[in-house]
Amino acid sequence: MIDVLTGFAIIFVVIGAGYVLAQRGVIGAGEQRLMFNRVAYWVASPALLFTTVATSDASTFISPVVVVVFIATAITMVVFWVISRLFFQADVPTRMAGAASASYFNSVNIGLPIAIYVIGDAAYMPPVLLMQMVIVSPIVIAGLTADPTSPGSRGRNVWEAVKSGLTAPVVVAPLLGLVFASMEWTLPDPVMAPLEILAGASIPMILMSFGASLRGGAVLSPGPDRPATITASILKLMVMPAIAWVIGALAGLEGSALYAAVILSALPTAQNVYNYTANFRAGETVARDTVFITTFLSLPAMVVIALLFGKGI
Protein backbone atom coordinates (compact mmCIF):
# COMPACT_ATOMS: atom_id res chain seq x y z
CA MET A 1 0.00 0.00 0.00
CA ILE A 2 2.85 2.41 0.80
CA ASP A 3 4.10 2.14 -2.79
CA VAL A 4 0.67 3.04 -4.15
CA LEU A 5 0.55 6.08 -1.87
CA THR A 6 4.08 6.95 -3.02
CA GLY A 7 2.87 6.98 -6.62
CA PHE A 8 0.13 9.44 -5.74
CA ALA A 9 2.52 11.49 -3.60
CA ILE A 10 4.96 11.87 -6.50
CA ILE A 11 2.20 13.31 -8.65
CA PHE A 12 0.88 15.75 -6.07
CA VAL A 13 4.31 16.97 -4.94
CA VAL A 14 5.54 17.69 -8.48
CA ILE A 15 2.23 19.33 -9.41
CA GLY A 16 2.55 21.43 -6.26
CA ALA A 17 6.08 22.44 -7.21
CA GLY A 18 4.82 23.64 -10.59
CA TYR A 19 2.03 25.61 -8.94
CA VAL A 20 4.40 27.29 -6.47
CA LEU A 21 6.90 28.15 -9.20
CA ALA A 22 4.09 29.71 -11.23
CA GLN A 23 2.93 31.69 -8.22
CA ARG A 24 6.46 33.03 -7.74
CA GLY A 25 6.82 33.87 -11.42
CA VAL A 26 9.57 31.33 -12.09
CA ILE A 27 7.30 29.58 -14.58
CA GLY A 28 5.57 32.19 -16.67
CA ALA A 29 2.18 31.96 -18.29
CA GLY A 30 1.44 31.17 -21.91
CA GLU A 31 4.42 30.22 -24.04
CA GLN A 32 6.77 29.73 -21.08
CA ARG A 33 4.53 27.13 -19.49
CA LEU A 34 3.70 25.46 -22.78
CA MET A 35 7.39 24.97 -23.52
CA PHE A 36 7.35 22.21 -20.89
CA ASN A 37 4.56 20.43 -22.76
CA ARG A 38 6.21 20.80 -26.15
CA VAL A 39 9.56 19.45 -25.00
CA ALA A 40 7.78 16.54 -23.30
CA TYR A 41 5.61 15.85 -26.34
CA TRP A 42 8.36 16.01 -28.95
CA VAL A 43 11.38 14.59 -27.09
CA ALA A 44 11.04 13.40 -23.49
CA SER A 45 7.82 11.36 -23.76
CA PRO A 46 8.90 9.57 -26.96
CA ALA A 47 12.16 8.65 -25.21
CA LEU A 48 10.20 7.31 -22.22
CA LEU A 49 7.85 5.31 -24.41
CA PHE A 50 10.62 3.83 -26.53
CA THR A 51 12.79 2.76 -23.60
CA THR A 52 9.80 1.32 -21.70
CA VAL A 53 8.47 -0.78 -24.58
CA ALA A 54 11.84 -1.75 -26.06
CA THR A 55 13.00 -3.28 -22.78
CA SER A 56 9.73 -5.16 -22.11
CA ASP A 57 8.90 -8.81 -22.70
CA ALA A 58 7.11 -8.91 -26.05
CA SER A 59 5.40 -12.19 -25.11
CA THR A 60 3.19 -10.30 -22.61
CA PHE A 61 1.80 -7.86 -25.20
CA ILE A 62 -1.18 -10.06 -26.11
CA SER A 63 -3.46 -10.54 -23.13
CA PRO A 64 -7.24 -10.96 -22.65
CA VAL A 65 -7.04 -8.32 -19.91
CA VAL A 66 -5.58 -5.78 -22.34
CA VAL A 67 -8.29 -6.59 -24.91
CA VAL A 68 -11.03 -6.04 -22.32
CA VAL A 69 -9.46 -2.75 -21.20
CA PHE A 70 -9.22 -1.60 -24.82
CA ILE A 71 -12.89 -2.39 -25.47
CA ALA A 72 -13.88 -0.56 -22.29
CA THR A 73 -11.77 2.41 -23.40
CA ALA A 74 -13.42 2.50 -26.83
CA ILE A 75 -16.96 2.20 -25.44
CA THR A 76 -16.34 4.93 -22.86
CA MET A 77 -15.00 7.28 -25.54
CA VAL A 78 -18.08 6.67 -27.67
CA VAL A 79 -20.42 7.20 -24.70
CA PHE A 80 -18.84 10.56 -23.93
CA TRP A 81 -18.94 11.53 -27.61
CA VAL A 82 -22.68 10.75 -27.84
CA ILE A 83 -23.46 12.63 -24.61
CA SER A 84 -21.42 15.58 -25.84
CA ARG A 85 -23.20 15.67 -29.18
CA LEU A 86 -26.58 15.59 -27.46
CA PHE A 87 -26.04 17.97 -24.55
CA PHE A 88 -22.83 20.03 -24.86
CA GLN A 89 -21.89 22.77 -27.29
CA ALA A 90 -18.32 21.95 -28.30
CA ASP A 91 -16.15 21.72 -31.37
CA VAL A 92 -14.50 18.46 -32.43
CA PRO A 93 -11.13 19.07 -30.65
CA THR A 94 -12.82 19.96 -27.35
CA ARG A 95 -15.13 16.97 -27.65
CA MET A 96 -12.15 14.71 -28.28
CA ALA A 97 -10.38 16.17 -25.23
CA GLY A 98 -13.38 15.16 -23.12
CA ALA A 99 -13.62 11.69 -24.65
CA ALA A 100 -9.93 11.10 -23.99
CA SER A 101 -10.25 12.45 -20.45
CA ALA A 102 -13.06 9.98 -19.79
CA SER A 103 -11.14 6.92 -20.98
CA TYR A 104 -7.35 7.39 -21.29
CA PHE A 105 -5.81 6.38 -17.96
CA ASN A 106 -2.49 6.85 -16.20
CA SER A 107 -0.47 3.70 -16.90
CA VAL A 108 2.96 4.84 -15.70
CA ASN A 109 3.55 6.73 -12.46
CA ILE A 110 0.29 5.59 -10.85
CA GLY A 111 -0.45 2.57 -13.02
CA LEU A 112 2.83 0.80 -12.33
CA PRO A 113 2.65 0.77 -8.51
CA ILE A 114 -1.05 -0.11 -8.73
CA ALA A 115 -0.20 -3.07 -10.97
CA ILE A 116 2.52 -4.28 -8.63
CA TYR A 117 0.94 -3.77 -5.23
CA VAL A 118 -2.83 -3.86 -5.86
CA ILE A 119 -3.15 -6.25 -8.81
CA GLY A 120 0.06 -8.11 -7.99
CA ASP A 121 1.41 -8.29 -11.55
CA ALA A 122 3.33 -5.53 -13.35
CA ALA A 123 3.28 -7.47 -16.63
CA TYR A 124 -0.02 -5.80 -17.59
CA MET A 125 1.43 -2.30 -17.81
CA PRO A 126 3.74 -2.40 -20.89
CA PRO A 127 1.03 -3.90 -23.16
CA VAL A 128 -1.59 -1.50 -21.80
CA LEU A 129 0.79 1.41 -22.36
CA LEU A 130 1.46 0.19 -25.90
CA MET A 131 -2.25 -0.18 -26.59
CA GLN A 132 -2.94 3.37 -25.47
CA MET A 133 -0.06 4.94 -27.35
CA VAL A 134 -0.33 3.00 -30.63
CA ILE A 135 -4.12 2.67 -30.96
CA VAL A 136 -5.77 5.33 -28.81
CA SER A 137 -3.28 8.20 -29.07
CA PRO A 138 -3.50 8.53 -32.89
CA ILE A 139 -7.29 8.82 -32.59
CA VAL A 140 -7.02 11.42 -29.84
CA ILE A 141 -4.38 13.47 -31.67
CA ALA A 142 -6.35 13.29 -34.91
CA GLY A 143 -9.40 14.66 -33.08
CA LEU A 144 -7.43 17.42 -31.37
CA THR A 145 -5.94 18.56 -34.68
CA ALA A 146 -9.19 18.36 -36.64
CA ASP A 147 -10.23 21.72 -38.08
CA PRO A 148 -13.58 21.69 -39.92
CA THR A 149 -13.11 25.38 -40.83
CA SER A 150 -9.86 24.84 -42.73
CA PRO A 151 -9.96 25.20 -46.53
CA GLY A 152 -10.06 22.07 -48.65
CA SER A 153 -12.34 19.07 -48.97
CA ARG A 154 -13.68 17.22 -45.96
CA GLY A 155 -11.81 14.09 -47.02
CA ARG A 156 -8.52 15.97 -47.20
CA ASN A 157 -9.07 17.53 -43.77
CA VAL A 158 -9.83 14.11 -42.28
CA TRP A 159 -6.69 12.67 -43.87
CA GLU A 160 -4.52 15.46 -42.50
CA ALA A 161 -5.91 14.84 -39.00
CA VAL A 162 -5.33 11.09 -39.28
CA LYS A 163 -1.82 11.64 -40.59
CA SER A 164 -1.06 13.91 -37.63
CA GLY A 165 -2.15 11.16 -35.29
CA LEU A 166 -0.23 8.34 -36.97
CA THR A 167 3.03 10.26 -37.35
CA ALA A 168 3.07 11.81 -33.86
CA PRO A 169 6.35 11.13 -32.03
CA VAL A 170 4.48 9.63 -29.07
CA VAL A 171 3.02 7.05 -31.48
CA VAL A 172 6.10 6.31 -33.56
CA ALA A 173 8.35 5.85 -30.50
CA PRO A 174 6.46 2.93 -28.89
CA LEU A 175 6.07 1.30 -32.31
CA LEU A 176 9.84 1.36 -32.71
CA GLY A 177 10.11 0.03 -29.18
CA LEU A 178 7.80 -2.84 -30.11
CA VAL A 179 10.08 -3.73 -33.03
CA PHE A 180 13.11 -3.80 -30.73
CA ALA A 181 11.26 -5.87 -28.09
CA SER A 182 9.92 -8.34 -30.66
CA MET A 183 13.33 -8.80 -32.31
CA GLU A 184 15.07 -8.85 -28.92
CA TRP A 185 17.42 -6.11 -30.06
CA THR A 186 19.28 -3.97 -27.56
CA LEU A 187 20.79 -0.57 -28.07
CA PRO A 188 24.38 0.02 -26.91
CA ASP A 189 24.76 2.01 -23.70
CA PRO A 190 26.07 5.17 -25.45
CA VAL A 191 22.70 5.33 -27.23
CA MET A 192 20.36 3.98 -24.54
CA ALA A 193 21.74 6.01 -21.63
CA PRO A 194 20.95 9.44 -23.20
CA LEU A 195 17.46 8.22 -24.08
CA GLU A 196 16.90 7.17 -20.48
CA ILE A 197 18.02 10.59 -19.26
CA LEU A 198 15.56 12.27 -21.62
CA ALA A 199 12.85 9.80 -20.57
CA GLY A 200 13.29 10.81 -16.95
CA ALA A 201 12.33 14.39 -17.81
CA SER A 202 8.95 13.50 -19.32
CA ILE A 203 6.74 13.04 -16.26
CA PRO A 204 8.20 15.92 -14.18
CA MET A 205 7.83 18.37 -17.08
CA ILE A 206 4.22 17.41 -17.73
CA LEU A 207 3.30 17.50 -14.04
CA MET A 208 5.00 20.84 -13.41
CA SER A 209 3.26 22.41 -16.38
CA PHE A 210 0.00 20.96 -15.09
CA GLY A 211 0.63 22.52 -11.67
CA ALA A 212 1.48 25.86 -13.25
CA SER A 213 -1.77 25.74 -15.25
CA LEU A 214 -3.76 25.66 -11.98
CA ARG A 215 -2.56 29.16 -11.11
CA GLY A 216 -5.36 31.64 -11.69
CA GLY A 217 -7.92 29.04 -12.70
CA ALA A 218 -10.04 27.11 -10.20
CA VAL A 219 -11.02 23.52 -10.93
CA LEU A 220 -14.66 23.23 -12.02
CA SER A 221 -15.04 26.98 -12.33
CA PRO A 222 -18.36 28.06 -13.88
CA GLY A 223 -18.35 27.92 -17.65
CA PRO A 224 -19.10 25.75 -20.67
CA ASP A 225 -16.44 23.17 -19.75
CA ARG A 226 -17.87 22.26 -16.34
CA PRO A 227 -20.59 19.81 -17.55
CA ALA A 228 -18.09 18.04 -19.81
CA THR A 229 -15.57 17.78 -16.98
CA ILE A 230 -18.11 16.31 -14.55
CA THR A 231 -19.31 13.87 -17.18
CA ALA A 232 -15.78 12.77 -18.08
CA SER A 233 -14.89 12.28 -14.40
CA ILE A 234 -17.96 10.12 -13.72
CA LEU A 235 -17.32 8.05 -16.82
CA LYS A 236 -13.67 7.54 -15.89
CA LEU A 237 -14.15 6.58 -12.24
CA MET A 238 -17.46 4.71 -12.34
CA VAL A 239 -18.72 3.86 -15.82
CA MET A 240 -15.49 2.63 -17.44
CA PRO A 241 -14.71 0.16 -14.60
CA ALA A 242 -18.31 -1.09 -14.77
CA ILE A 243 -18.03 -1.57 -18.53
CA ALA A 244 -14.75 -3.47 -18.07
CA TRP A 245 -16.41 -5.67 -15.45
CA VAL A 246 -19.30 -6.55 -17.77
CA ILE A 247 -17.12 -7.06 -20.86
CA GLY A 248 -14.60 -9.10 -18.88
CA ALA A 249 -17.29 -11.34 -17.42
CA LEU A 250 -18.84 -11.88 -20.85
CA ALA A 251 -15.38 -12.69 -22.23
CA GLY A 252 -14.88 -15.35 -19.59
CA LEU A 253 -12.43 -13.51 -17.38
CA GLU A 254 -12.65 -14.34 -13.70
CA GLY A 255 -10.68 -14.02 -10.51
CA SER A 256 -7.46 -12.01 -10.68
CA ALA A 257 -7.73 -11.38 -14.43
CA LEU A 258 -11.17 -9.77 -14.13
CA TYR A 259 -10.02 -7.83 -11.06
CA ALA A 260 -7.00 -6.53 -13.02
CA ALA A 261 -9.18 -5.34 -15.92
CA VAL A 262 -11.55 -3.47 -13.60
CA ILE A 263 -8.79 -1.90 -11.49
CA LEU A 264 -6.88 -0.75 -14.58
CA SER A 265 -10.05 0.83 -15.94
CA ALA A 266 -10.45 2.78 -12.68
CA LEU A 267 -7.03 4.43 -12.90
CA PRO A 268 -7.17 8.25 -13.12
CA THR A 269 -7.00 10.19 -16.35
CA ALA A 270 -3.44 10.30 -17.67
CA GLN A 271 -1.41 13.49 -17.64
CA ASN A 272 -0.67 12.67 -21.28
CA VAL A 273 -4.20 13.80 -22.12
CA TYR A 274 -3.46 17.19 -20.61
CA ASN A 275 -0.12 17.26 -22.41
CA TYR A 276 -1.78 16.61 -25.76
CA THR A 277 -4.44 19.27 -25.22
CA ALA A 278 -1.86 21.82 -24.05
CA ASN A 279 0.39 21.07 -27.01
CA PHE A 280 -2.45 21.53 -29.52
CA ARG A 281 -4.27 24.24 -27.48
CA ALA A 282 -7.62 22.46 -27.55
CA GLY A 283 -9.79 21.33 -24.64
CA GLU A 284 -7.15 22.18 -22.02
CA THR A 285 -9.62 23.04 -19.25
CA VAL A 286 -11.61 19.81 -19.58
CA ALA A 287 -8.44 17.71 -19.60
CA ARG A 288 -6.78 19.61 -16.74
CA ASP A 289 -9.81 19.49 -14.44
CA THR A 290 -10.61 15.84 -15.18
CA VAL A 291 -7.01 14.82 -14.48
CA PHE A 292 -7.15 16.71 -11.19
CA ILE A 293 -10.49 15.29 -10.05
CA THR A 294 -9.86 11.68 -11.05
CA THR A 295 -6.38 11.65 -9.53
CA PHE A 296 -7.86 12.61 -6.17
CA LEU A 297 -10.84 10.26 -6.36
CA SER A 298 -9.38 7.19 -8.08
CA LEU A 299 -7.89 5.73 -4.91
CA PRO A 300 -11.27 5.64 -3.08
CA ALA A 301 -12.82 4.19 -6.25
CA MET A 302 -10.23 1.41 -6.33
CA VAL A 303 -10.76 0.67 -2.64
CA VAL A 304 -14.48 0.16 -3.38
CA ILE A 305 -13.61 -2.17 -6.28
CA ALA A 306 -11.24 -4.16 -4.08
CA LEU A 307 -13.95 -4.58 -1.46
CA LEU A 308 -16.46 -5.69 -4.10
CA PHE A 309 -13.97 -8.34 -5.22
CA GLY A 310 -13.41 -9.39 -1.62
CA LYS A 311 -9.85 -8.11 -1.55
CA GLY A 312 -7.98 -5.71 0.72
CA ILE A 313 -5.54 -3.06 -0.39
UniProtKB/TrEMBL annotation:
Residues that span the membrane, as ranges: 6-27, 39-55, 61-84, 96-118, 124-145, 166-185, 197-221, 242-270, 290-310
Cell membrane as UniProt keyword: yes
Membrane topology: Multi-pass membrane protein
Record carries keyword Cell membrane: yes
One cellular component (GO) term of this entry: plasma membrane
Biological process terms in GO annotation: transmembrane transport
Keywords associated with the record: Cell membrane, Membrane, Transmembrane, Transmembrane helix, Transport
Any Pfam family matching the protein: Mem_trans
Superkingdom of this protein's organism: Bacteria
Subcellular location: Cell membrane
Primary site of residence: membrane
Similarity remark: Belongs to the auxin efflux carrier (TC 2.A.69) family.
Name of the protein in question: AEC family transporter
Organism: Corynebacterium tuscaniense
